[in-house]
Amino acid sequence: MPGHTVDIHDIENRLWDSADELRANSGLKESEYSVPMLGLIFLKYADNRFGAAAEELGATGTGRRQIGKADYQARGVMFLPEKSRFGHLLNLPEGSNLGQAVNDAMKAIEDENEELRGGVLPRTYNALTNATLATLIRNVNSILGDIDGDGFGKVYEYFLGKFAMAEGQKGGQFFTPTSIVRLIVEIIEPFKGRILDPACGSGGMFVQSARFVEEHRASAGDRLSIYGQERVDETVKLCRMNLAVHGLGGQVRQANTYYEDPFDSVGAFDYVMANPPFNVNKVDKPKLVDDPRFPFGLPRSDNANYLWMQIFYSALNERGRAGFVMANSAADAGGSELEIRKKLIQDRVVDIVVSISPNFFYTVALPCTLWFYDHGKRNTDRADKVLFIDARKMFQRIDRAHREFLPEHIEFLASIARMYRGEETAGRSRSEALMTQSFPDHVYMDVLGLCKVVSLADIEAQHWSLNPGRYVGIAAGLEDRFDFSVRFQELNEELERLNVEAAWLQERIAENAVSLLT
Questions:
Q1: Cα–Cα distances in Å, from 451 out to 180, 356, 403, 431?
Q2: Which range, 19-33, 101-115, 255-269, has the best average confidence (pLDDT)?
């Protein structure tokens, strides 16, 4: 609407109030009402785009032929039959089975648009009463009436985050906080090529990668090819809806990444991004013997962290970059995991490691670490170096239990990575105050308590640890304010990991004793 400013935050809040109204009046849990709500946001998005395209086609048509589905799809717009239009649902006669009508609308969209086939859109609206659903449809139509495609994408992301926060640990399985995703994207810089997320959840890594490309004045659809794997079918559907709301296409497959490799990933990708589940046990490792995705061997400990690390490593081509979230304990893990980490470091692929403070994630309150691989660094002056960044003091509180990065934090941390690589940092005004304080000449240097470039020889001297805290140190004047609770949590996590490994060793000893006796 020309001259009309849309307040996305106001829209998000009003729509969330409608979602709360749905929960209060339907008796549904968050996990049950989140998908119907996201489905209606998707439907309104598709309806708005279809309506705008219909007006344009009507204005440009010659009248010599009837405008059809191909005309809409040529414009990148999903085709909506009449029964799938929001206006049709709003004007159904009183007493109509509204739940069935919405289910039919969703099925009709899938039938007409190949990229959504396979039961992607929700069809659970019969679980809602006519009165509740009618109110919800009216609210969605009214609140989302004036926003464009990008606005819909932001609203969809907002709802994914709110539902994930409400579901706690379960929600963390399908949603990675946007500020973390944005930092990973800004550091690996996915300008062009094939991008893989083998634990893709609802697709946030893809959305932010496409946004990064668009901000650099390129077409995301032309420059990035998207490939995702996700174990849970319901989450695959969320991801495909999320991509569609952002106008993105891609291949997203349901697959258990430990055992399945649907895209023949070895050496096939320019970028890998992921937030894998931490410290998973009971993976059936005998099934993985001779799998080329694990070139450094299988860890003996009952922990999948170092399986994921090799999946990311092996998927990259000779110049590929990866960015992923990892449990802090992995940076200092011993035994067979240390041997795998040593091989990764000696292969000169580990490029940057960033410490993150607690309470950024819904799956775990403990601090986490971001790891970055760069296969292309082997032929640079960074080949025998790793950049460590301690970002644990950098956050804004969302509420008592959750934190996030501000845009200036993301820009600043990404600029440190760029300076380390010898890249330009110009045009990044949000973080100018932070840059002036630590890097007044916009040239990299080690900053006590913030960042340090470390040689492989020094890493070897620290028993191949990739824990930034071992190298970066604590800035003068901050010692008394250092968050010792963070270190206490880290030590508890390490103790838990050691207990798991000890239990595994006891089992092996018992098995060997039985075999000797027999």
A1: 18, 13, 21, 16
A2: 255-269
